[in-house]
Amino acid sequence: xxxxxxxxxxxxxxxxxxxxxxxxxxASATGSSVQTxxxxxxxxxAELGGGLFLREANALTPTPLAKSLARQAATMRAGADAIAxxxxxxxxxxxxxxxxTATNTVTHFISAHFHEVAGQCRAAGAAVTLLPSRVxxxxxxxxxxxxxxxxxxxxxxxxxxRRIGRIGFAVYALRDxxxxxxxxxxxxxRFRSQAQxxxxxxxxxxxxxxxxxxxxAPRLAAALSGLGATLLPCVADADPRLVRxxxxxFLEDVYLLIHRDLRQVPAIRATAEAIAALFxxxxxxxxxxx
Length: 290
Known about the structure:
This protein is α/β, with parallel strands linked by helices. The protein has helices at 8-20, 23-30, 34-48, 64-89, 104-113, 118-123, 192-204, 216-224, 266-281, 283-287, and strands at 53-55, 60-62, 96-102, 126-132, 146-149, 159-174, 182-184, 209-212, 230-233, 242-244, 250-259.
């Protein structure tokens, strides 16, 4: 009797569990519930006649069978994604949603100045959606169409990439006075260079770190409350409530990425060119030179 082949849907779920190492994370990634995912995996194990995971207290460890199936499923997914991109690149519609993922800082800049390029995007049929996130969306799987990244550029994938600008960082405090303290970073792994620079700056001046928070918005709110100074992108020069209290700390390059299969789609290409032009127009301000 021939063993039935697993369905692609089951393999997709298996791959998600192997890649994330968790039913909860895999359920979130695939849009399933934990209960449904667990049931489907048990059914798949019964069909295959072999265990797929060693279930431990806080993790699922894939068996050799699960690892082998996941490798094949990843190849199948890559082929399916390539077909989807091919179809997507030839889709003819008067308006196309163009999803742009970037950090909160870059998203805020684009939002504040989008009126300068909105007409250019509309003329190309682009309905732009901004996705602020530090999570690196997968362009190959069409989780986004354009990515703006300042670090951790992809080592794999057929991407077209170019540097479109630089963003400077400096320390800012409330212009009308405030406490002589510093609002530092909580996560030194994700923000290693920024966190270390700010801690060194504070220590050299004998200033206490009165609060730690890695995201920009709450650090800015704390600085505006007068709690202390913090490291911010140099676009903060435009905020009359703030004053720069340090030289420019450093510059970070900003890269624009598009998957090669979609680079000639008119709406995506026009949006990318508009964003690149926006960075060029405001280059001195972004770098903290104006």
